[in-house]
Amino acid sequence: MEQNRTSVWKATLNTGIFLGLVLVLYSLLLYFTNQITNRNLGYISLVIDIVGLCLGINSFRKNYRDGFLSYGQVLGAGVVISLYAAIISGIFVYVLYAYIDQDLIRQLLDISRDKMMEKGMNDQQIEMSMKITSKIMKPWFMGISSVLNGVFFGTLISLILGIFLKREGEAPFAEATTEEGE
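^ that's the sequence the OP posted. Answer follows.
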């Protein structure tokens, strides 16, 4: 019974940190292989999120909630795990763009410019868009955006996982204790 009193914040901390570190390691792998700007490989981080959330929620259910979680508890645990992971990822994104590779933002701006040209935008439209884009593509903004995106997508994933990972029911001896009290 003591294990049921552990808060979701404390119980999911290690899982969230671990998921965040795995996402950082994956980002470093992409960075060192010069694939950090490859959007298609970014989908692998989504798979990492899904697997990490599944494992984390199952661990929380098994170790802290006697094998039972309602849909809302699954959602709550998933959001908290995502928040921890997103904070770690956001700090890494900030450090990457502010200190490790300050030229990376310029590369992303060049990619944006090329995509606008491919869409057939005229020079005036491209320049106006690039002014706005360059104002928001700052390390601090990208770090905050990373945290917000991580929590948003973690919430969406958790909403879906809740359908499959919820396990509602009573503790095995709940019926026996109510019969004794009558």
